[in-house]
Amino acid sequence: MSGTASGPESERFRAGTEVAAGLAQSVGGGACKALHGNRVQGVEPAEQDALAPENRVLAACAADRVGLPFTGAGPTAPVSVGPAVRTMCPTPGAVAAR
User: Fold this and answer.
1) For residue range 29-80, what is the model confidence (pLDDT) as tens digits?
2) Nearest Cα residue to 59 out of 89, 38, 82, 37
3) Residue 54's pLDDT is what?
4) How many CA atoms lie within 13 A of 80 on its CB side?
5) Predicted pLDDT of residue 76
6) How far lies 46's CA from each of 52, 59, 85, in Å?
7) Which one is predicted more confidently, 84 or 41?
8) Are 51 and 34 in contact, with CB atoms under 8 Å apart?
9) pLDDT at 1
10) Rounded CA gap, 84 and 63, in Å?
11) 45-65 and 10-26 helices cross at what angle (nearest 10)?
């Protein structure tokens, strides 16, 4: 789905990060990945560029909780799980809609 991490579907993306990471782990997936997504018409690029990294951090945290590495990149900085990202991880189930 285009722009899921950075557009109007962002809330669905945020709600599904724990489920997706758990599924990936349960089927023996080697890693989780989330990309910025395509530009969504009607949403300012700057808004998408601000939202996507936040959502990739949430996805990275979910992957980390199930022991999988995470990769994610976009027009802003790439995200990988490390001590700095772990300090931004919310408690599972406590992800607020944006």
Assistant:
1) 988 888 777 788 888 888 888 888 888 888 888 998 898 888 876 555 555 5
2) 89
3) 83
4) 2
5) 52
6) 10, 21, 22
7) 41
8) no
9) 42
10) 15
11) 30
Q: CA-CA distance, 70 to 63, in Å (whole number)?
A: 6
| Strand pairing category for 32-35 and 70-73 | parallel
pLDDT for 98 beyond 90: no
What's the confidence (pLDDT) of residue 23? Answer: 94
Q: Domain ranges in the chain?
A: 10-86
The runs of H, that is alpha helices, within the chain are 10-26, 45-65, 83-86
Residue matched to tokens 């990936």 = 24
Q: Rounded to an integer, what distance in angstroms lies between the CA atom of residue 26 and that of residue 4? A: 23
Distance (Å, whole) CA 48 – CA 29 = 28
